[in-house]
Specification:
Residues 767-838 form the Alpha-L-rhamnosidase C-terminal domain. There is one protein chain. This protein is of the alpha+beta class. It has five domains: 2-91, Immunoglobulins (Immunoglobulin-like), CATH 2.60.40.10; 103-283, Galactose-binding domain-like (Jelly Rolls, Sandwich), CATH 2.60.120; 289-398, Sandwich (Jelly Rolls), CATH 2.60.120.260; 404-765, Glycosyltransferase (Alpha/alpha barrel); 768-847, Maltose phosphorylase, domain 3 (Sandwich). Strands 19, 20, 24, 25, 26, 27, 30, 31, 32 and 33 form a ten-stranded mixed β-sheet that branches. A six-stranded antiparallel β-sheet has the order 13-12-15-10-18-21. It has a five-stranded mixed β-sheet with strand order 2-8-7-4-5, with no helix packed on it. Helix 3 (445-458) packs parallel to helix 15. The model has no long low-confidence stretch (mean pLDDT 96). The structure holds beta-D-glucopyranose.
Length: 848
């Protein structure tokens, strides 16, 4: 039987509210083999659209503000079987001018490098007639929470989300029909958040505005056909004396439950304006929501007397405490990723205090921060008897679907995969961050450049990455450079083009395209990619005087082999020209493919030629032309091998050299962020499968399984964040300083970049790899080794579920696979046997 699964509007199965012509997609399931879509008819009101595609169906009909549209879809399979389904979406404001005005407390100011005290706004309004529908649209400069009659509106954290506020701000729409009474009190709390609060490691504040501001409209439709809009204006009231005494990303939150809003002296709000003129757009990313509850696995009393709760997992989130308290009792919750000498180890948080403080009233009460989050595994609690508190925590991250799974017969690899997934979740809190705990949590572009592909196997990243890439596009420099962090949010470095971090404008949309097949999205990003490559070309030619050196990318600077173990920052940066040149060639290859997909043949030809020149330069300048580098290091072999820059014997020699370097390092990698994601591919795709498995299974430092064995529950920024002797690494020690005096450096225990090896688990162990956008065509080609006896991987693609499940018994390899309707799979067995398979479930076996 044919069935429509996952009918989505703008990549959401439900509750889509949009301001743009939405994209409609659907998956299909069938019990028949070799089923495919023959045609589908999509009807929205009087708009009818016939299509043979399951993705990229853009609704081009009429859109009116705040209107519900039903989507009806009928499909016919090649088998002639029929199926139908319905969903709906809502429109947002559709450009409707705001009646509400931006309001603030014009009299409020706060010092440099600090975050403002959260503002509390209030407004009372009456509803005199019977209502049919009521909703709020709202946004803020800062982050906001709304409450109607004491109840929280919606489930979002950190609305309106983090965007490049000078260019775009999202607004949210919440249905409040069921919340309204005759007399109503709306409370809005606006904390500094990213726009106004201290942010980035220099704690710059007032980045987008001098103080918080709120923009809000309450829309009410009455049964008698009339309607009303109540907007923010100077009749609204404001105070900084509310319950939230402090809230910010790094230091945490202070909440005083004793404050009674009814007894406060309120001021009139002031009407204000935004300094820039950003687009205020219906939310197009995923909002951050509580995704799960964590319970402590143990608690101990530290020598200092603090009670330390261990949640058993490093994650981004907030505590949720049920407390039996007495008036004015002050309870302090501190957070850390690791424990040293029985105490919370907080030095690696650098200046971040990561502390929540709660001041009680009498009796039973609950507290959970709403205007900050922390990255932690341990919570230290002071100020309450353990018997008077029940502690748990909420995991917070953007609300995307988990679509991938991977498991195999080696438990350590399974734990590694779990750590990779937690690394992803912890760093997908509205934007892709480098880490969730210390005084950083910024949108470092290089980290997501290398992790995007792994992320897209595990999660449906479509809305999350689409949102972030809008900001990448907006913040691209005039000269084509991509900022090192996006949104820039106070980062003062000029957006000069550099490799990997800058290549994120190509690597991220490409990973997302392969996973979801959204061609619109590639086309929206295309100009950004071209501009970036133009900048790379211009910089490569800078101060270069020979024909080949014109394609060696040295300037203005590169992060190079960032975080390569056993080296200093200076040494990482010094390897920039190898890394820069290889990434440049790879990006040209990808943009050539994208140009083909967009029908831009001339561009495709141009980037292929440019790539050839870069490759020639890499080989001439850096190697002897036969596969040996003049200056050898692992990343400089990994990149040309994985980016297909060498062929034939030269390729063989390069792989042999790489293998030698790994062996010389005691079977360890010495690659940084830019090489680590690809090292196993460089080996396994060139005949060194066992070497790849050996490296994956290495368990002494530096290695992935070293972290697992050392008790890591996420991926670390430095392989030796926890040293083999059990001490915590404090980062690079500056000349003339002792380790104790060091700043705490770059020692995050939750940094996903090195988790990019997740890609290899899916692509090579489970063997699943898309060969065209959205898995319309894909490959399943598991490579066996490492004494694995079974593995299983699955990905819920836009067409349906792809599954690969294999095992080895008595030297016989058997595999079961699932191919979604309308797709085709090339299955390659370990003995080289090939099968081209249309949809269905299949099983094969061979000797191995
Ligand atoms: C971040 C990294 C980032 C790097 C680049 C660090 O502080 O945490 O992940 O990519 O800086 O300089």
């Amino acid at each position: 039987m044919l069935k429509i699964s996952a009918l989505k509007v703008e990549n959401l199965s439900e509750n889509c509210i949009t301001d743009r012509q939405p994209n409609i997609s659907f998956g299909l399931e069938s019990s028949l083999k070799e089923e495919a879509l023959k045609k589908a008819t999509i009807t929205v009101g009087n708009w009818t659209y016939e299509t043979t595609n399951q993705i990229n169906n853009i609704y081009t009909g009429d859109l009116k503000p705040f209107t519900k549209y039903d989507v009806h879809i009928k499909v016919e399979g090649k088998s002639r079987e029929l199926a139908e389904s319905i969903t709906s979406f809502m429109t947002g404001r559709m450009g409707m001018p705001w009646k509400g005005k931006w309001i603030t407390d014009g009299s409020y100011d706060f010092p440099d490098k600090e975050s403002p005290v959260p503002m509390t706004f209030c407004h009372k309004f009456d509803v005199k007639k019977k209502i049919t529908r009521a909703w709020i649209t709202s946004t803020a400069l800062g982050i906001y929470e709304l409450m109607i009659n004491g109840e929280k509106v919606g489930e979002d954290y950190f609305a309106p989300g983090f965007t490049s506020y000078d260019h775009q701000i999202q607004y949210q729409t919440y249905d409040i029909t069921a919340m309204l009474e005759r007399s109503n009190l709306l409370i809005a709390i606006v904390a500094g958040g990213w726009a106004v609060g201290a942010f980035n490691y220099v704690r710059k504040n007032k980045i987008n505005a001098d103080r918080q501001a709120l923009l809000c409209e309450i829309h009410i439709e009455y049964e008698d056909g009339t309607s009303e809009v109540i907007g923010t204006d100077d009749n609204w009231k404001v105070t900084e004396d509310g319950n939230y005494r402090m809230a910010e990303w790094y230091d945490g939150e202070t909440y005083d439950a004793r404050v009674d809003l009814d007894k406060l002296v309120w001021r009139q709000a002031t009407v204000t304006q935004t300094t820039k003129n950003p687009n205020i757009v219906a939310q197009y990313g995923n909002s951050v929501k509580a995704q799960g509850i964590m319970k402590p696995i143990s608690s101990t009393i530290a020598p200092s007397g603090e009670v330390i709760y261990d949640f058993g997992q490093n994650f981004a989130g907030v505590i949720n405490a049920k407390i039996f308290g007495r008036n004015s009792q002050r309870i302090v919750f501190r957070h850390s990723e690791v424990i040293a000498d029985g105490e919370l180890f907080v030095k690696s948080l650098r200046t971040a205090k990561a502390t929540a403080t709660y001041i009680c009233i009498n009796g039973e009460q609950t507290y959970s921060p709403r205007l900050t989050y922390m990255g932690f595994r341990y919570v230290g609690v002071k100020g309450v008897d353990p018997k008077d508190i029940e502690l748990e925590a909420f995991v917070l991250h953007s609300d995307f679907e988990e679509i991938g799974s991977f498991e195999c017969s080696n438990e350590l690899i399974n734990k590694l995969n779990s750590n990779i997934r937690w690394g992803g979740k912890s760093n997908f809190v509205d934007i892709p961050t480098d880490c969730p705990q210390r005084d950083e949590r910024q949108g470092w572009t290089g980290d997501i450049a290398v992790f995007a592909s792994t992320a897209c196997y595990n999660f449906d990243m479509s809305r999350f990455l689409d949102k972030w890439l809008v900001d990448v596009k907006s913040e691209q420099g005039f000269g084509g450079g991509i900022p090192m962090v996006v949104p820039r949010a106070g980062d003062n470095w000029p957006p000069l083009a550099n490799s990997c971090w800058g290549d994120s404008c190509i690597l991220v949309p490409w990973a997302e395209y392969l996973a979801r097949g959204d061609i619109q999205f590639l086309s929206r990003q295309y100009d950004t990619m071209k501009k970036f490559l133009k900048a790379a070309k211009r910089w490569s030619a800078f101060l270069s005087f020979t024909p080949n050196s014109r394609y060696i990318w040295r300037f203005p600077f590169h992060f190079g082999d960032w975080c390569a173990p056993g080296e200093t920052t200076k040494q990482w940066l010094k390897k920039g020209k190898w890394v820069g040149t290889a990434y440049f060639a790879n990006s040209c290859a990808i943009v050539a493919q994208i140009a083909e997909l967009l029908g831009k043949k001339e561009d495709a030809e141009y980037y292929r030629n440019l790539r050839d020149k870069i490759i020639k330069a890499y080989r001439k300048v850096f190697t002897d032309g036969k596969g040996t580098l003049k200056n050898e290091f692992q990343t400089a072999y990994v990149l040309p091998l994985h980016f297909n820059m060498v062929e034939g014997d030269e390729r063989k020699v390069m792989t042999k050299n790489l293998d030698r370097l790994i062996k010389e390092a005691g079977n360890h990698l010495t690659t940084g962020f830019t090489g680590t994601p690809y090292i196993l591919f460089a080996l396994s795709d060139n005949g060194y499968t066992e070497a790849a498995y050996d490296l994956l299974l290495q368990d002494t430092c530096p290695s992935w399984l070293y972290e697992v064995k050392a008790g890591g529950t996420t991926i670390w920024e430095r392989w030796d964040a926890l040293r083999p002797d059990g001490t915590v690494n404090l980062g690079e020690v500056k000349e003339g300083k002792s380790e104790e005096e060091s700043s705490g450096g770059m020692v995050s225990f939750n940094h996903y970049a090195n988790g990019a090896v997740g890609d290899w688990l899916y692509k090579r162990i489970a063997g699943i790899e898309p060969t065209s956008g959205g898995y319309k065509t894909f490959k399943i080609e598991p490579i066996i080794g490492g004494e694995l006896t079974w593995a299983k991987g699955s990905v819920r693609t836009p067409y349906g579920l792809v599954l690969s499940e294999w095992n080895i018994e008595s030297k016989k390899f058997s595999i079961s696979i699932e191919v979604p309707v309308s797709t085709s799979c090339t299955l390659v067995l370990p003995n080289g046997e090939n099968h081209i398979l249309m949809s269905g479930r299949y099983s094969y076996s061979c000797n191995c």
